[in-house]
């Protein structure tokens, strides 16, 4: 069975989504997986809602998936 996993992290600005996304990407890459990541953020210094999405596969990946397998919600607005 091949791995094709999409994770989405959502929360308010300043809650550390960029850091969480970076650590997860580095972890999967070190595990030998291919990944595609995208960060969506508001154009405010603090405030607003942000997402970090990662798709992980055992073969090269060139786009995100609309399906989300794992949702990490750091606030109620994410759900």
UniProtKB/TrEMBL annotation:
SUPFAM superfamilies: Pyruvate-ferredoxin oxidoreductase, PFOR, domain III (SSF53323)
Gene3D superfamilies per UniProt: Pyruvate-ferredoxin oxidoreductase, PFOR, domain III (3.40.920.10)
Oxidoreductase as UniProt keyword: yes
Keywords of this entry: Oxidoreductase
GO molecular function: oxidoreductase activity, acting on the aldehyde or oxo group of donors
Limits of the Pyruvate/ketoisovalerate oxidoreductase catalytic domain: 13-79
A Pfam family: POR
Protein name: Pyruvate/ketoisovalerate oxidoreductase catalytic domain-containing protein
Source lineage: unclassified sequences, metagenomes, ecological metagenomes
